[in-house]
Design brief:
Shape: globular
Radius of gyration: 19 Å
CATH superfamily of the largest domain: Aspartate/ornithine carbamoyltransferase
Bound molecules: phosphoric acid mono(formamide)ester
Organism: Flagellimonas alvinocaridis
CATH architecture of the largest domain: 3-Layer(aba) Sandwich
Number of helices: 11
CATH topology of the largest domain: Rossmann fold
CATH class of the largest domain: Alpha Beta
Distance between the termini: 10 Å
Structural class: alpha/beta
Subunit structure: Heterododecamer (2C3:3R2) of six catalytic PyrB chains organized as two trimers (C3), and six regulatory PyrI chains organized as three dimers (R2).
Family: Belongs to the aspartate/ornithine carbamoyltransferase superfamily. ATCase family.
Strand content: 5-15%
Protein name: Aspartate carbamoyltransferase
Number of domains: 2
Pathway: Pyrimidine metabolism; UMP biosynthesis via de novo pathway; (S)-dihydroorotate from bicarbonate: step 2/3
Strand order of the largest sheet: 7-6-5-8-9
């Protein structure tokens, strides 16, 4: 069975194929054809052990636009609360003849673990601070849409790198496509191994922004944070928050991204998030086409 567990397991050709397939689905959506019969005989379970707005709705919309049958599971309203294990939960769902599982889980490696213990294709919709592969795919796809080929572009990922699955998946995806990648953030929120991934570290945000074509502003992940790691919010915003004044002080117009949800006024001010320089809502829009592509390509392997 084939899975999408992380960008780490993909190659450059896989990404190109996903983008070509997403181009096709985006064209279909833009022609106001809301539904295609492609996955009419496929049943998909979206199982979320952690909160989500974008990823969950985007997967569900992608599945429905491909005519799949869809069931949704939130751990908070389930028998997980009575002590049922992850494997038991998923095997019970699979015994209702589910073909593919989309899972978000707070534990890094949860998708990999599941793929070894259950007979279904698994799509990782974010596993703790490990990977968020469809986010990285939609991020690169959005850069490609805005600036052309991702190869050779300078991309800086700013903020809480340590706790960010978006950062890790983006680094893998961008490097595979030949982008130059910097990370910028407080030393306390920078993993020790980060340079071994082929990225450079810049602690001065203005220098990083002067260098880049694209700045991907990460959310400060309060829920994964040990308070001792962190400068105060005020200090963080002063040193690593992007605002209009800072952008206007650069001698070029860079593209601003954010995976959402935004802490407005912390990592990004509203006048930047809602400006023409921001492609934040394009990222969300592209998420549906990217997820349609991923599901279509995986389902074609399991049928
Ligand atoms: N970007 C992202 O994963 O958002 P959600 O947590 O709302 O799904």
């Amino acid at each position: 069975v084939n899975h999408l567990l992380g960008i780490k397991y993909l190659n450059k050709k896989d990404i190109a194929l996903i983008f070509e397939t997403a181009d096709h689905f985006k064209e279909v959506i833009n022609r106001s054809i809301k539904k295609v019969p492609t996955l009419r005989d496929t049943t998909i379970a979206n199982i979320f052990f952690e909160n989500s707005t974008r990823t969950r709705l985007s997967f569900e919309l992608a599945e429905k636009r491909l005519s799949a049958d869809v069931v949704n599971f939130s751990a908070g309203q389930s028998s997980v609360k009575k002590g049922e294990t992850l494997i038991d939960t998923v095997n019970n769902i699979l015994s209702m003849k589910v073909d593919l599982v989309v899972m978000r889980h707070p534990n890094p490696g949860a998708g990999i673990f599941l793929s070894k213990h259950v007979k279904a294709a698994i799509v990782n919709a974010g596993d703790g601070a490990h990977e968020h592969p469809t986010q990285a795919l939609l991020d690169s796809y959005s850069i490609r849409e805005k600036l052309g080929d991702v190869g050779g572009k300078n991309v800086v990922i700013v903020g809480d790198i340590l706790h960010s699955r978006v950062a890790l998946s983006n680094i893998f995806a961008l490097k595979l496509q030949g982008a130059n990648v910097k990370v910028c953030g407080p030393k306390t929120l920078m993993p020790k191994y980060i340079e071994s991934l082929g990225v450079t570290v810049e602690t001065n945000l203005k220098k990083a922004l002067e260098w880049c074509d694209v700045a991907n502003m990460l959310r400060v992940q309060h829920e994964r944070m040990d308070i001792s790691y962190f400068p105060s919010i005020r200090e963080y915003t002063q040193q690593f928050g992007v605002n209009r004044q800072l952008l206007d002080s650069l001698d070029k117009q860079i593209v601003i991204m954010h995976p959402g949800p935004i802490n407005r006024g912390v990592e990004i001010t509203s006048d930047v998030a809602d400006s023409d320089q921001s492609i934040i809502l394009h990222q969300v829009e592209n998420g549906v086409a990217i997820r349609m592509a991923v599901l279509y390509l995986l389902a074609s392997k399991i049928q």
